[in-house]
Design a protein that fits this description.
Residues 8-331 form the NADH:flavin oxidoreductase/NADH oxidase N-terminal domain. This is NADPH-dependent 2,4-dienoyl-CoA reductase. Residues 378-646 form the FAD/NAD(P)-binding domain. With 674 residues, this protein is an alpha/beta fold. The protein folds into three domains: 54-308, Aldolase class I (TIM Barrel), CATH 3.20.20.70; 378-469 and 637-673, NAD(P)-binding Rossmann-like Domain (Rossmann fold, 3-Layer(aba) Sandwich); 485-520 and 556-627, FAD/NAD(P)-binding domain (3-Layer(bba) Sandwich), CATH 3.50.50.60. It is built from 22 helices and 27 strands. The protein has an eight-stranded parallel β-sheet with strand order 10-9-8-5-4-3-12-11. Strands 15-14-13-16-27 form a five-stranded parallel β-sheet. A five-stranded parallel β-sheet has the order 18-25-19-20-21. Helix 3 (136-155) packs parallel to helix 6 and helix 13 (386-398) packs parallel to helix 22 (660-673). The chain is globular, with a radius of gyration of 26 Å. The mean pLDDT is 96.
Length: 674
Amino acid sequence: MTTPYTHLFQPLDLGFTTLRNRVLMGSMHTGLEEAKGGFEKMAAFYAERAKGGVGLIVTGGISPNVRGRLTPHGSQISHPWHVKKHKIVTDAVHQHDAKICLQILHAGRYAYHPFSLAPSAIKAPITPFKPSEMSERQIEKTIRHYARAAKKAQQAGYDGVEVMGSEGYLINQFLCPRTNKRTDKWGGSFANRMQFPLAIIKAIREAVGEKFILIYRLSMIDLVEDGHNLDEVIELGKAAEATGATIINTGIGWHEARVPTIVTSVPRGAFSWITARLKQELKVPVVACNRINTPEIAEKILADGEADMVSMARPLLADPEFVNKAEQGAPERINTCIACNQACLDHVFKNKRATCLVNPLACFETELEMKPVASAKRLAVVGAGPAGLAFACYAAERGHEVHLYDKASEVGGQFNYAKQIPGKEEFFETIRYFKQRLKETGVQVHLGETKTADSLADEKFDEVILATGVKPRDLAIEGADLPHVLGYLDVLRDHKEVGKRVAVIGAGGIGFDVSEYLTTTESPTLHPDEWHKIWGIDKTYANRGALLTQSLAEPNPREVYLMQRKETKVGAGLGKTSGWVHRNTLKKKGVKMLNSVTYKRIVAGGIEIERDGKSELLEVDNVVVCAGQLPFRPLQSELESKGISTHIIGGADVAAELDAKRAIRQGAELAARI
């Protein structure tokens, strides 16, 4: 079969070696680096992606020394015994004709321990520790440690290294006036500030020789005040090329930047414009990155000459076979990354093992295995939401006869509401993928059908899986039955008319989604130029950090109050890496976020609340209730009374903020053992 993605599958000749295609698996810290038996698990993880067709893999960041570690027990490579462990990984990858580079990352002031070092003693806003300013001797020693790490990587069988020079880590800290206030030869002018990365590149090249891939990850837009300007980015790119870099990879934004760069509301391929700008200046291959999650967008970036390679990290968590499926001309079979961050980055920042909401097997390749069954069972799954879909597909894949029932006319459950939220358009892809998987695995789908315990008993299923989801929690407030009171399903499912002034009760994920839905006329995610202006990104690069002096105000058709009983900050329970984006989005639209609210009563003209001991009437046209959910499992007791083996998964088991991550994992885990 001829692939329609001709640019994506052109080999890339690096002179001394050739990459089989233009796909680079971007660096991701998974937590396996520090886990017990982690190198064997990493070997399986990376081998799956190599087998899946990736041309070049870059590992998670590994420190060149103790003080550069991200955490007190973070990974480093500097001793002979490290080499043997890493060889487990490289051997596994090389069995599948892919190449792999080790990323060398010194955390600098981003280190989450008290021994951090930085060019200047300036604390980062995202860690509690203030770094010590590096002495000149420490700088020279760190440069040698980078070279030592690269040599160890070469001995371990890696095909190259990536020097992490972006995202606000140590090298980036040397480059920008924001964090480099030195007055010696390592500070001051840009010529002085860029000596540090160039010295590292030079030392590595001398240590490993010419026939070893050296990727430099260049911060092309910092998205923070006092970051790079465009001339400096170009100057450093050219200098890195001249000093020995084989490939220039793209970095977008510091971790402390208040501009989203990878969450689901970021448009696809939103930053390829800056890679295109730098590519004009360089001879070595340039890699585009961030929110490239389909072969179509990857192919377009390459075909338009915006980059020589594309970097995808989370999309290869979501589907290790992404590249093979694209090459086979079967993009509909790809399990698309929805950029939710819930199981990958959110896990890593909580020191938990990364995985993937839509692919719970990611990073669990040796533990959550879907082996063919010895004896097939006849299984009924009631409920075609995320939990039911996941179980049905995995169980059928293993060889069981699976019947999936839902009273609705389409599969997807609560995902059908989530996909309507502006900025969450990616959720369409998960439903599309599951529909494809149902066909491939031979699940027998029965939609528009309400099952009873009797009908399930009559059909003689061996076991029944209840994935019947949740029901909204009733609001125990006087006036809750008034006609202007709506539930979130009235708004998102039934599309009932909502007035210009709205009070939203409940500020969890659903409350935020409903508020976003009510305050957005057109999704900026689908209009990239508008999205850039709303978030203050300057595509002309007139200012340092590529920041506009003033962002674009997004039109808001409604006045909304988003309220919660809790005393904590509104939205405190949202995802660690995406919650701030949701809060800032609503703040930009003027949504009034109220905590410590006591709901007194709902009246014809609005809702009476109490805050700080003071009563207040919010005059609103509608009150929308997003006050939580309860498990919905109407068949459980009847099935159990009939002696039918019954399993409960997803929201029917635990109704926690419509937790698709837990629901899909629970479905997969049950399917693996049933």
